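thread: overnight batch results

M.L. [08:02]
morning all. the overnight job finished for the chain we discussed friday. pasting input first so we're all looking at the same thing
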Amino acid sequence: MTDQTTDTPPLAGGAKGRRAGTSGRTLGLGRKDFGLLTIVAILALLAPFLLNPFPESTALAQFNAGYPDLMQRFVIFGIFAIGFNILFGLTGYLSFGHAAFLGVGSYAAIWMMKLVTTNVIPAIIMGILLAGVFALVVGFVSLRRSGIYFSILTLAFAQMSYALAYSVLTPITGGETGLQLKVTDNPILDGDTAGIGRANLFGLDMKSSYILEFGDWQFTFNTGYYICAVVLILAFYLSIRIFRSPFGMMLRAVKSNQNRMNYTGLSPKPYTLAAFVISGMYAGLAGGLMVAMDTQVGPERMFWTASGEVVLMTILGGAGSLIGPVLGAGFIKYMENILSKINKGILEQWYSFMPDGMSDMFVVVTDLFVGKQWHLTLGILFMLVVIFLPGGLVQGGQKIATVFRRGRKAGSVEKDAAEQQPPHSAE
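M.L. [08:03]
and the structure it wrote out:
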């Protein structure tokens, strides 16, 4: 008989190696990615505490941001920016028309609530689907060009969408006044509960809140916010999976060198179109959530400034990074809602301890950067970030972490050297 060898041991060893390689993954994520997901989850779920650091009775309470409307905006625009980052951060295609998908998702959601049900789940799903279909059409045309021409095409589509919503399709969009959920609406699936005019999740009102008072602190836990927070965590998890997938690697190849990709026999167009549609669906999700939280929508949601805003959020936070767009969205929305409320009366209270002439000078100078002029502060900060931190706020955090690690390493080296130094013998 001839000896027969089998490949069982190598296969078993390979399987064991694969099991060992995947045993350290949680939810399909590596350690660093799972750490990022945990950070986002903690920030989102504990936001009512983290955004209200100052007691209500103090003058600093005006810097608190833990009220439902603003927290919802943090989360919703974070989702919007995450989706935009999938297109811009991975492929390098800069779109100035993503507000169109935000608006389409909002209009789809409001009509779903007016006609079918005030439950937010079907409305959000419809917003995602219609935004995805519209993104497929826009992407199919716009992605025939690249660079600045692609950006101009997307801007043109967004402005056409705004014009249609503002004046042409008024029976569908409500024109300048927009649409809102009314008590006279009679959704088909709501039955006897029709006429409430409130968005809900299986009867749970989106605007219901529980207020926790602890000394001079006041923390608000809003139903709508926590629904948005859960959606943000899921959207962030999905973006991580996209970034780490073979599909994400192909998108990075598109960004690095399309010509080389063409030489290998791979066409970048299907990948870029898929990324464009996914990004548009994220925008539709954000639009649907905006309607779920505040049941009204107008054409201004599709204006080009909204598209420019998500570009700023992504670049300010760190384009191409995972958590950067979320940080950028929170930073800009905080400045928009907090700095814009600071007026001369508040500034006079701040500088009341100074002599009259000096306090007046400080009030005049500071007033140039707050209140209605908060955009000037944002522009200066954005310019500084682009010049000194091209990687955005994420790069700034990485540099700070590097400095601390170097300091800790230097301290440990000095300690080890001191321990290894022999003691001096007495002569």
